[in-house]
Amino acid sequence: MAFRLFVIMPHFLLLFFFVCCIIKIKKRGDEMNERLKQLRKELNLTQQEFADKLGTARNNIAGYETGKRNPSDAAISLICTKYNVNENWLRTGEGDMFVKLSYSDEIAQFVGQLMTEEDDSFKKRLVSGLAALDETGWKVLEDFLDSIQMKKD
Is the pLDDT of residue 22 over 90? Predict the structure, then answer.
């Protein structure tokens, strides 16, 4: 009897180890799915809007969020790039949800998004108007903004 137990026990322990690993991997994937849903809600987007901005189908996003599908590395990279998401947070839950951009990166991101808008959008017209200002115009605008800030204080 002791010999049988000695023979069976290593097999049982090996099986137990593999089951624990599978459960841990599955749990990690589920957590990422929950973080994807949390991210989408933080961005105040529907699954369709989130999918459209990524250039994918809504059912892919639904599959990611329910755990029926795991996003590929390329999909994760696209999500992180498009929405300025901390990839480590998305994959592991560690760190902040969003990457803190430098001032220059924020401007570059804004300009990049601006280029995708219609030519007659307010934002494009505003930037076009600002680009046409001479030094006097910039000084008038700066004085105006300073006066608004003083009124808030």
Answer: no
Q: Is 100 left (phi over 0), alpha (psi -120 to 50) or beta?
A: beta
Tokens at 7, concatenated: 């023979």
CB atoms within 10 A of CB 152: 5
Position 91 pLDDT exceeds 80: yes
Show the domain range for 9: 2-92
Global pTM reads 0.58
Do 132 and 113 share a structural domain? yes
3-class secondary structure, 26: helix
Residue 17 — pLDDT band, cuts 50, 70, 90? low
In whole angstroms, what is the distance from residue 130 CA to residue 138 CA?
Answer: 8
**Tokens 């639904």 sit on residue:** 62
Instruction: Identify which of 56, 68, 61, 62 has the alpha carbon closest to the alpha carbon of residue 29.
Output: 68
CA 78 – CA 66 distance, rounded (Å):
19
pLDDT for position 23: 55
Please say whether the beta carbons of 37 and 65 come within 8 A: yes
Residues 20 and 62 in one domain: yes
Domain co-membership, 85 together with 30: yes
